[in-house]
Amino acid sequence: MKAEEIVKYIKETLIASLDTNKFLDQQTRDKAKAKLAASTDKMGYPDIYMNDAELDSIYQDIAINRSDYFQNLLNLNVFEKEDWTRRLTSGEDRSRWIYNSYDTWMTFYNYWNQLLVPAGMLQFPIYEWNLPHYFNFGSMGGLVGHYMIHAIDNWGRYYDENGRVDGGWYTNASLEGYKSTQKCFAAAYHNKTMGPFRIVGQASPQTLLVNGARFAWEGLAETSGLKIAYKAYRKWVADKGEERPTPTPHYTNDQSFFLSFAQTFCYTRTDALGYYYASAQRIPENIRVNTALSLSEEFTAAFRCPATSNMNAANKCDTF
């Protein structure tokens, strides 16, 4: 499966990239490598979904009567209670899925050291089996890279390779190095303008400024994930060979990779909702994409962005 191959390449590339990381010391790198190497992934949906007999066995004890709605609710409550009792008394079952197959988000679940990618994410424009790898590495791969970074960043450092909370495995030197890198990303996003938003009752369009310090850890994961996905794609090309370029317009495969990354963030929403999100410091997608790309040397090289252009940040930050 192409999706599993992409995850494999990104995971291997991230582990290898830690050897040249500039803000983690060797002890912390070794811990990060061990955690990533031990991590697992769940892609699409559980295997049991394809086995009717096993699915039937799960629900065979529920009594359903089409003419007694209230009793059906009581029976379902009993079923749920028994299921939770089994979980509490028998211990956690890491083969279970905490997401529905139709969910349209992914995450790195540090408690189980697992990457979770439901089937709802494995569709266009995030993933399309028939499209070239430069498309899928740019779109799905960029997101996978982002969430794998959360396994070893300032959040993931509190969980070991078994998902246990151990107080944090960064050394003091690595923690200071991470904080210094985070400051670079805080500066890259700080005071960028969100909006303008046209709000009912307001005479003029409203704008808000980004609090760079609040978004810095996500910005670090975003740019790091993008760069890891690109390196993984180039490693795949080295192993498998260059793919045929897009027919028209005549973008190079590398350029198409970055365009695919950007396309995954396309959105439409009302100004009222956009203003509500911005008020809560949920950074608009155009700022997230343009800043992440402008901090990537690989992007600026692919599109030959002039040194003075907005899409070529003068101060590039260190990444994972």
TrEMBL record:
Ranges in coiled-coil conformation: none
Protein's recorded name: ECE-like protein
Residue intervals of the Peptidase M13 N-terminal domain: 2-46
InterPro entries attached to this UniProt entry: MetalloPept_cat_dom_sf, Peptidase_M13, Peptidase_M13_C, Peptidase_M13_N
Keywords: Hydrolase, Metal-binding, Metalloprotease, Protease, Zinc
Domain Peptidase M13 C-terminal positions: 108-318
Cofactors required: Zn(2+)
Keyword Ribosomal protein attached: no
